Amino acid sequence: MVLNADDPDALTQVTAWLSAGEVVALPTETVYGLAAHALDPMACAKIFAIKGRPLLDPLIVHVLDILHGERLAVWNETAHHLAKRFWPGPLTMVLPKLPIVPSIVTAGKPTVALRCPRHPLMRAILSQCAFPLAAPSANPFGYVSPTRAEHVASTLGDRIKAVLDGGPCEIGIESTIIDLTDPKRPVLLRHGAITQHQLERNLSVTLRETKESDHAAPPAPGMLPSHYSPHTPLSRLPEDWQAHPPWKSEEAVILLARPKGTDFPRHTFWWSEDGHLEQIAQSLYHLLQEVDRLGCPRIWVEMPPGLGLGVALQDRLTRAMGRKHPPRA
Ligand code: TXA
Ligand code: MG
Fold first, then answer.
1. What are residue 237's phi and psi, to 5 degrees?
2. Average per-residue pLDDT for the chain
3. Of all protein residues, whose CA lies closest to atom 17 belonging to ligand 1?
């Protein structure tokens, strides 16, 4: 069921479901999240089952503000500094967890990922609930993340109580994740709209990035190379694609900006009019899902430049290409 956020009863209904341990999909400024009461292990177990997500992949916990975050984790000065600068917003911080956080949420890890979203509907729900909300992206495990209510409804709609429609997500890709467990050695776990450069400027340090080889145990699936994938095989357009187009006529092409010429296959799309990275991020997942539905034999994508927000966009597209393609469901 898709709930219209203008309906005055919708928020009350969502809060009642969440309080009763049910799972509801909610909009955030990054992507839609599959939310449940973060301090209720049974409610959180439902998230894993609904997504088909392995229990070894921990959930992000969403809080209204720093004060609520302090009840869940051991904070340090660096965390306070970044939260004051970037919260509410698309920054998730990994910190040592307090015992109140159930181990199912953190997949048994001693740390918890905290995020303070800025989407007004998510904030309204968080302020009505007397508890934090665990919420991974509201997609079936491994598939493209949802940035519109209809993305959630078409993939998980029959497995959840409802999705609260907050319109298209403002940012369109998942939050930046920084591990501050050791504040002297912060580690960037996932690129996002808050860039590595912004964080480094604020912290006056150089961030380490996780490499798979850093992990003794297998890395969390969000950090695995194959993730966020459509069913259709995805390929990167080569540098010289304009001179030597690689596509066959039935294949689809997604470009960064509206193309000038006319010599393109009939399934040609673009993420933005003029290549603005913010616009590309907003439509990244939406267009991938739309084009995936066409059932073309392949989707060719133009890679964004690796600067600013482009680093996170490259990261998501590269992961989407890393997939061995399962047949369509
Ligand atoms: O923008 C976002 O972050 C969205 C919205 C809904 O808030 N959420 C999101 O959640 O992207 P999810 O579960 O799809 O991605 C969270 C990532 C996962 O890769 C998970 O492994 C990692 O965060 N993570 C969670 N807790 C962690 C922890 N304690 N240590 C390291 N990584 C953690
Ligand atoms: Mg996800």
1. -65, 135
2. 93
3. 222
Q: What tokens appear for 264 in the block?
A: 């393109």
Residue with tokens 């860039």: 195
Asked whether the predicted pLDDT for residue 220 surpasses 80, the reply is no
Neighbours of 158 (CB within 10 A): 8
Atom of ligand 1 minimally distant from the CA of 90: 1
Q: What torsion, rounded to 10 degrees, do the Cα atoms 188, 32, 171, 55 define?
A: 10
Query: Do the beta carbons of residue 167 and residue 119 sit within 8 Å?
Result: no
* Stated pTM of the model: 0.94
Please check the confidence at residue 221 and state whether its pLDDT lies above 60.
no
Closest ligand to residue 91's CA: 1
Confidence of residue 263 (pLDDT cuts 50, 70, 90): confident
| DSSP element (H, E) containing 134 | strand 133-134
Q: Is 220 in the pocket of ligand 1 (CB under 6 A)?
A: yes
Of 5, 36, 9, 34, nearest in space to 20 by CA: 36
> Does the pLDDT at position 25 exceed 60?
yes
β-bridge partners, 178: 93, 188
| CB within 8 Å of 158: residues ≥ 6 apart | none
pLDDT category at 45 given cuts 50, 70, 90 is: very high
Q: What is the mean pLDDT of residues 168-190?
A: 97
Provide the greatest CA pair distance for the chain. 61
Q: At what angle do helices 77-86 and 196-203 cross, to 10 degrees?
A: 130
Q: Tell me how far the alpha carbon of residue 84 lies from the centroid of ligand 1, in angstroms.
A: 21
Choosing from 177, 181, 223 the residue with most ligand 1 atoms within 8 A of its CB, the one to mutate for a pocket test is 177
Ligand 1 atom showing the smallest separation from residue 53 Cα = 13
- The proportion of the chain whose per-residue pLDDT surpasses 70, expressed as a percent, equals 93
Closest atom, ligand 1, to C-alpha of 92: 3
Number of helical H runs and strand E runs in the chain:
9, 15
